[in-house]
Every structure is written in C-alpha cells, then in structure tokens.
C-alpha cells in the first residue's frame, strides 16, 4: 500500500504536467516556482530541518486551482490493468463522516476496493461517472432514522457544490459531517433528520454560501443491520 505522501507526490507531478510546468502551477496557487520544485524533490526545509511534504492546506489549494474534487490529491489514480472490461473498482476509505458532533478529517489511502459492474454502478449509484464514488462509513445518529450509525455511504466526490436538495458530506471546522441540505428562498438549510432538539438546524445565507465546504453528495447508503 502506498503512503499518503507518495500518493500526493505522484498526483502533484500529474498536476504539473496538466498545468504545463512548475511555474504555471505555482502561479495558480500563489507561490514561488521554487516551492513547487522543493515539493517534487522532497527537499529539506531550511526553516524546520524536516522533509518538505505536501501539507493539507497546500493539497486543498492545488485541488481548487486545478478544478479537482475535494480530496483528489489523496487518491491513488494509477490504472489497475487487472480490472476487467465492464467492471469498476469502488474504493473504501477508513474515514467516518459524523451524523452528530463531527469526525476529525484524516485523509488516508483506500484500505480496500469493491469490484462491481459498471452498468450497475451507473444505475444504482445515480452517477454518470462511477469512478467518482468513494465509500465511507457514517458515524452517529443525527441522521436517524434515514441513516444509522455504521451505514455505508456512497459519496460522489465530483459534487463539491450544492446540486439540489439531498444528503451531503460537508466539512465544518475541520470535521466531516453527514447532513441534509435544502435550499429555500436562496438560503441553504443544514438539517439533521433526527427530530431530537439536540440537533439544531443551521442556515447559510446566499452571500456566505461560498464558505460552505461540500466534499460530496451521498448517492446511496446501505444499512448494515444485525441478522439475528
């Protein structure tokens, strides 16, 4: 299994190629070309004495500048020739989105993959591009009875902005949360399905919606129930 720094470095090189060169990519994120060069060579930072890896803030800036979905830099995009035609791999990540107070974000490589028919994925996961689907677990009960603790969430990471009412994964104060978003009169309501007064609704005004960090839209969720 590749380490996170290895994956980020491979993807950084791909972004440099896509942008044209290091200088153009550096300009897009507002840094000196020498900074990008240092990242590609994993050189020692003179200020800290440590190897200069790609940090969280830089990773997110690179994704935004190159119009990549949230978390793209942390995914292994290398092609697996062992996957047969007509099938696709869905990646499962050990990241929990909290239907409750929130789970601290920790971007890690996929820990397993699920091989499914591509036609099935397109039909049942409601997406035209199944490769954008990531599988994570829900944590907590704020979305009960719709989604329960431990349910599998099939998240479309290409949907990083409001795209109609539905259930989304949002980033709030560095925590992933599973919430229902509804737009009324230009205002986005952030709702927990659990009717308990412990889960309070939030709203985002039209002028502040650029601050709402959407990581993906939940296309499907599978309940994991005790068979006894």
UniProtKB/TrEMBL annotation:
GO terms for molecular function: DNA binding. It comes from the Bacteria. Residues 121-218 form the Peptidase S24/S26A/S26B/S26C domain. InterPro entries: LexA-like, LexA/Signal_pep-like_sf, Peptidase_S24_S26A/B/C. Keywords: DNA-binding, Transcription, Transcription regulation. PANTHER family: FELS-1 PROPHAGE TRANSCRIPTIONAL REGULATOR, PTHR40661. This is Transcriptional regulator.
